Amino acid sequence: MELRSQTFIPTTKETPKGAEAVSHALSLRAGLLHMVSAGIYTYLPLGYKVLRNIEEIVRGRMEQTGAQELFMPALQPLELWQKTGRDKDLEEVMLHVQDRKGRKLCLGPTHEELITEIASKYISSYKQLPVTLYQIQTKYRDEMRPRFGLVRGCEFMMKDAYSFDADESGLNASYEKMLDAYQKIFTECGLEYVVSEADPGAMGGNVSHEFMVPAEIGEDMLYACAGCGLYAREAGQCEHCGQALSESRMIEIGHVFKLGTKYSVPLQATFLDQHGKRNPLVMGCYGIGVSRLLSAIIETNHDEKGIIWPARVSPYRAVIVVLNQEFIPQARRLAERIETGGGSVLIDDRNESAGVKFRDAQLLGIPRILVMGRTFADRKEIEVESRADGERSAMSPDAAAEHV
Ligand SMILES: Nc1ncnc2c1ncn2[C@@H]1O[C@H](COP(=O)(O)OP(=O)(O)OP(=O)(O)O)[C@@H](O)[C@H]1O
Ligand SMILES: [Mg+2]
Ligand SMILES: [Zn+2]
Prior knowledge:
Shape: elongated
Number of strands: 24
CATH architecture of the largest domain: 2-Layer Sandwich
Number of helices: 11
Number of domains: 2
Helix content: 25-40%
CATH superfamily of the largest domain: Bira Bifunctional Protein, Domain 2
Oligomer: single chain
CATH class of the largest domain: Alpha Beta
Distance between the termini: 14 Å
Bound molecules: adenosine-5'-triphosphate, magnesium ion, zinc ion
Radius of gyration: 24 Å
Strand content: 25-35%
CATH topology of the largest domain: BirA Bifunctional Protein, domain 2
Largest sheet: 9 strands, mixed
Structural class: alpha+beta
């Protein structure tokens, strides 16, 4: 458990200037983020807890597909990018660095080149296939218009996975596993997402799918049918029910690609098949905007009072609002009982007015708000409020612990 009086959660009442998106304003007001400069943020303790919860959801599902975690450097030799020609393709977004000996480096906007070089070094036989590697790591992109907090940053967290197979059918199987894992990840993050076939663009390859969340601040566009909810990429009529499709803004949260041999050929990542024949590895790559998810979750899970965290990503399981300092020992005992069921509890023990504490609890968005106030003084009952629907009921501490 943590005591609010001792935790670093700098909440503010006012909406900060320049925060155009609700998620941006709320993440600053709730003390999740600190803006360092446009597109550059510090995750404050509360924001970092949420980020790690999202990462844990992602890790759990990645491991389930059999993918193995590694960690590549952000600093990458430019030489490697020259081999695929992507030093030119990504020139605009790439942040260039030169060390004191004149070595030309970049801060990685993505990692296909680096991982393919690893594969070329260590994969030599079909017996080592298939293999999928992933990391959760910082990416750097010189975005033209960094905006909306973590939605478009110049430094952001991405989960990037890379599959290596012997042939197309192997790639198809790896790709399907990832599509399935992605659906579970986004559901666990409390997001209502849409999957759509997309243009592979600068990543290359011929098949790709995007995962998107409908939101007004989205910078991607899909067409939606108001009749049946079907999404399409082009204007026109709904294939399903014939109604006219209307524009719908989307935030891209994940993108997966069948790369084929686009990287393995120029970087000579080959293996020997059963017949002793040398073939290029057949690759897929799979990205999730881990930090962008944090913003996308807030953008689609809030009300006028603040954030409403989906249970799995919430920084705390519950918050106990203590309105009388004498109740703090009982609040601690209640927190302990709740924590035996997993997750951590925040106790608002501050010497502040009830109004301030309520508003703060609503802003922070913790799914259960447990109030120890008058009903506790009168009848030893806790008022339990569900943040999402505002429903309240009074119950004994036992029942409250059980309920949470
Ligand atoms: N500047 C950014 N800030 C935060 N997240 C990002 C940023 N750029 C990309 N992402 C996230 O990383 C994921 C994988 O990266 P990818 O290279 O496929 O993105 P992208 O096509 O450049 O995205 P976008 O079209 O939004 O620029 C994206 O689906 C997105 O969720
Ligand atoms: Mg981009
Ligand atoms: Zn329709």
